[in-house]
Inverse folding.
């Protein structure tokens, strides 16, 4: 019975794991966050953003970048997985 369960569940778990990895990559896209950080800096230098807005936005983006890098590390090491029964 357990062998049959594993055979039936394995394709579903593989698809779920792939979808989860794709979602994490999309949400924690390090390159996109770095681009947004550069864009924020450029807008500040061009005078489109005031100093306070720039500092708040930059701090938020740095925090997001740190979290994204941490999540990417977990993905590469295999620590982020879909729960299996």
């Amino acid at each position: 019975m357990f062998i049959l369960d594993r055979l039936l569940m394995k394709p579903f778990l593989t698809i779920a794991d792939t979808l989860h990895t794709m979602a994490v990559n999309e949400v924690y896209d390090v390159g996109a966050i770095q681009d947004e950080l550069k864009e924020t800096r450029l807008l500040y230098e061009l005078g489109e953003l005031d100093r306070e807005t720039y500092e708040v936005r930059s701090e938020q983006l740095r925090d997001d970048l740190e979290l994204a890098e941490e999540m990417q590390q977990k993905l590469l090491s295999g620590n982020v997985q879909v729960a299996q029964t």
